[in-house]
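tool=predict chain=A
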Amino acid sequence: MILPFGLLLACMAVLPLHWPEWWEKHYAKLALCFAAVTVGYYVFVLPPAALQTVQHTAQDYAGFITLIGSLYVVAGGIHLRVSGAGAPARNALFLALGGVASNLLGTTGASMLLIRPWLRMNRSRIAPYHIVFFIFIVSNVGGCLTPMGDPPLLVGFLEGVPFWWVGRHCWPMWLVGMAFLLVVFYFIDRRHDARAPRPPAGTEHPWHFEGLWNIVFLTVIVASVVIPLPPMLREGIMVVAAAASWFFTARAVHVANEFHFRPIIEVAVLFFGIFATMMPALDRLRDVGGNLTPTRVYWSAGTLSAFLDSAPAYLAFFSALGGHAGAGMSALPTKLISALSVSTVMFGAATYIGNGPNLMVKSIADHQKIQSPSFHAYLFKWAVPVLLPLLILQWLIFFR
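tool=predict ok
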């Protein structure tokens, strides 16, 4: 029953590359068909107790897509125009600040707020690696210090990990990851800059910010996550904040941002299929026991985060670790939780489906007619040669 999940991932990897028009027309049908097979198996074949898995998965998906969608709408109502065109040092500083902002706004909020200014400031010299390193840093690695930063850390917080625990124990891994990626990006961008076209004279604009009210709506959404609230109330607050943002934002701001709902619809449909079809894989994973070491947790949870989505992978391994320790969070060694936290955050950058913002950033770039790497190219041309050495380095320094 893991087969539908594998087939959906294969379709996402192959079809947009070789048959993009067909995929654009039929991706929703494929995702829903694969989801129907798995859900039908749980509802009609397995014992009635399996319905609890379906209900929990539906709740997880509802919370996930409500947060992603509300942040997308609110960030789409903020028009940030940066001064000057992209250049290697300026770009590296922008990404560094974006990584820091990810811990306050979440990787989703920071990605949605900053991807459009990032594309605008580099439009005359844009290349696929600009999309890749934005996903690496702003959409993933940057958000490694707080539960607000990345979905798996939020899951840990809801499961009992103290709010500042990750920041206290994982800041060295965050610092190594950020420094490594920023240095690699700087040298790639400097090499590209030597032959990139220059923007026409007189096209630079001063700093400009529109949509100030959306900061209030963004704060409401962040507060609804940080403050313990019943799930339905939390999601309701997010929807109300998103609706208020949509109605109160001037149309000119949405036009300037080239805002429309197609990217979030694509993400919602594909992740519906992913959440539904990965239930058998997660059920199998929850049976994991035995002698779990930091190395095993780091590589196993990380690899699953890259292809299963990081938040469910964190939850499954956290449950396995709790069962292994036998006494809950207080008895778990610091290195095990650190390995789980760092791996699920950083491995989430390895594919477009590893973390929610990844696919959304790609969708925004694609719909603005900016070339982004295919699923294969992202994985083999960028994640393997750039991200994998960082992941090995983290393991050698901190978890071996």
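The longest strand covers residues 79-81. Residues 323-327 have pLDDT under 50 and may be disordered.
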